[in-house]
Backbone:
């Protein structure tokens, strides 16, 4: 299984970015997907998750109302649309594929495969 994340970059506070994560080598449409992030000096934390059909989504309180997770199973791709970005959103963002099918999870240890990470930097 390979997960390739992209779309990070430098943006001013209040701006927007869209992250993408393309999956290969797995039955993508049977598995929930998640986005996590790690800021300097902090542990990796949950950002958002989406069920295998895309019908259910879960968000961390810190991003609720600003970020939207979505997926396109025909393209084996999950997205994270980030609006109203804040300096505290600065982190390396990772996409992950659930270790088991047909569920949606928020805990890091439940995810079996991880992308390489993409840097998001929000300037004030």
Residues:
């Amino acid at each position: 299984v390979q997960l390739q994340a992209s779309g990070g970059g430098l943006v001013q506070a209040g701006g927007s970015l869209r992250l993408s994560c393309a999956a290969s080598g797995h039955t993508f449409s049977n598995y929930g997907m998640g986005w996590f992030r790690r800021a300097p000096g902090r542990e990796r934390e949950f950002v958002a998750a989406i069920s295998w059909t895309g019908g259910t989504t879960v968000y961390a309180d810190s991003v609720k109302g600003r970020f939207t997770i979505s997926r396109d199973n025909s393209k084996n791709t999950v997205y994270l649309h980030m609006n109203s970005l804040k300096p505290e959103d600065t982190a390396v963002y990772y996409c992950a594929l659930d270790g088991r099918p047909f569920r949606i999870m928020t805990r890091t240890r439940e995810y079996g495969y991880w992308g390489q990470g993409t840097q998001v930097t929000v300037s004030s």
User: Anything to note?
Assistant: The mean pLDDT is 96. The longest strand covers residues 17-24. The chain has no helices and eleven strands.
